[in-house]
Write a structure and sequence with these properties.
Length: about 400
């Protein structure tokens, strides 16, 4: 499966690296960006060049690495102008207090800072610094100034710092920075201006303080939809049942446990949305009573009475979204009579689109990274090949956008 990410594929990214101990993490970031298809130019500050060799980046990006402001790139124009202007995103990671100050003041004393001044691309800054420097009012003032100019700051994490101290200042992880790059580059995508509500994962229905009735849903499909929608410029709220997947950068996350909590959250968020995509595997039943104490074995049979949960799609049929009736997408996981069962859901749940999949097929189902889906709408039926869930997410979003546009006409 390709690691290419559509929003990064073929895009020019200028990765500025300044002299923090965390500079080594920028190599992993350059690698992730390159694998995603980005064309990564690297600019090292003098401090960074002391810590890490240009070759470490060059070997990964197969592109030039700049550090001297008067260096000429192959195409002979003045380097910082060429590199700054072709960049579609400038990402400074790690950004030291010193480089943040230079960027805030508009100093132009090396390749990176001059390139930033020559660039009109969005600026993403990932600070990293030690010993409480991040909380110093000067640093915060400079960041506020950069933010006011439209820069996006990826907050550093708290934890162990190189000095041995604990505090805020650890560079965000490369995975998070990759996500942030996608979110910022995606802002002008074809879903800009749309607000999507997505659900993911299974729900857990408590039996006692340690046990629950649940299912094997991983959350991968719903998370993929939320991620891709964000990369295409949508405002996304993701309501997720318990899932091992981490929060998505740039997505409003609401974590819930039970079907009833998910229902409350969907009902509360739907009026602010243009579309609802219910990828969650909601438990249809819950134990009638959740015992307050752990249920002990007694040697006798244990009978658990299950009562129905609210059907979220059914119960929200009458709720209007931001622009009237929202586009409503349901998912149907079936083990028999795929089309007939899915068509019944389309009508009963008042849906515009059903993403149906036969869970008995190889490569389809809850824990897989792929899915073979059939899309059903009132217009007909579309059988899709076996696709990675991320690619399927884009196909579903294409259909949602087409439905939304058709309705606007
Ligand atoms: N769904 C829901 N609320 C529930 C159960 C399901 O909103 N209590 C949504 C799911 O998120 C999915 C769609 O309904 O988008 C279809 O779910 P599925 O479980 O396949 O259908 P059910 O209506 O529960 O029918 P059955 O289990 O009998 O197949």
């Amino acid at each position: 499966m390709s690691a290419r990410i559509p929003v990064l594929d073929g895009r020019h990214v200028l990765l500025g690296v300044s002299g923090s101990i965390a500079a080594f993490k920028a190599v992993a970031l350059a690698s992730k960006l390159t694998q995603a298809g980005a064309l990564v130019d690297v600019a090292l500050t003098r401090g960074a060049a002391e810590l890490i060799r240009p070759l470490s980046f060059q070997a990964i990006t197969h592109r030039p690495v700049y550090s001297d402001p008067f260096e000429l790139p192959e195409d002979s124009e003045i380097g910082h102008v060429t590199v700054g202007r072709r960049a579609e995103l400038v990402l400074v990671a790690p950004a030291t207090a010193h480089t943040i100050a230079r960027l805030a003041l508009g100093l132009a004393d090396d390749f990176l800072t001059t390139s930033v001044l020559a660039s009109t691309a969005p600026l993403l800054i990932a600070p990293a610094m030690d010993a409480g420097m991040y909380d110093h009012p000067t640093v915060q003032e400079h960041l506020a100034r950069l933010r006011a100019r439209g820069a996006v700051i990826v907050e550093p994490a708290s934890g162990h710092l190189a000095s041995g101290l604990e505090g805020r200042g650890r560079l965000a992880e490369p995975e998070v920075l990759l996500e942030a790059a996608c979110a910022v580059l995606g802002r002008t995508g074809d879903l800009a201006g749309w607000s999507l509500l997505v659900t993911a994962g299974g729900t857990q229905e408590p039996l006692d303080p340690v046990r629950f009735v649940g299912n094997r849903s991983s959350g991968k499909m719903g998370f993929a939809i939320a991620q891709r929608a964000r990369d295409r410029g949508a405002q996304v709220t993701l309501i997720s049942g318990p899932s091992a997947l981490p929060d998505l950068y740039g997505v409003r996350m609401i974590r819930v446990t039970t079907a009833r909590e998910m229902y409350q959250a969907v009902a509360a968020e739907l009026p602010a949305s243009d579309a609802l995509l219910m990828a969650a595997a909601v438990a249809d039943f819950r134990p009638e009573h959740a015992a307050e104490q752990k249920i002990k074995k007694s040697g006798a049979e244990l009978v658990i009475r299950l009562v129905p949960n609210p059907d979220i799609l059914r119960e929200t049929r009458g709720i209007d979204g931001r622009r009237g009736r929202p586009i409503r997408v349901g998912f149907a996981a079936e083990s028999q009579d795929l089309i007939a069962n899915s068509r019944a859901k389309l009508e009963a749940k008042d849906l515009d689109l059903v993403v149906a999949n036969d869970i008995t097929q190889p490569g389809s189902g809850f824990e897989a990274d792929t899915n073979r889906a059939t899309l059903l709408s009132c217009d007909g039926l579309e059988e899709l090949p076996l696709l990675p869930k991320t690619v399927l997410a884009d196909v579903i979003l294409d259909r949602v956008l087409a439905l939304a546009r058709a309705r606007q006409r």
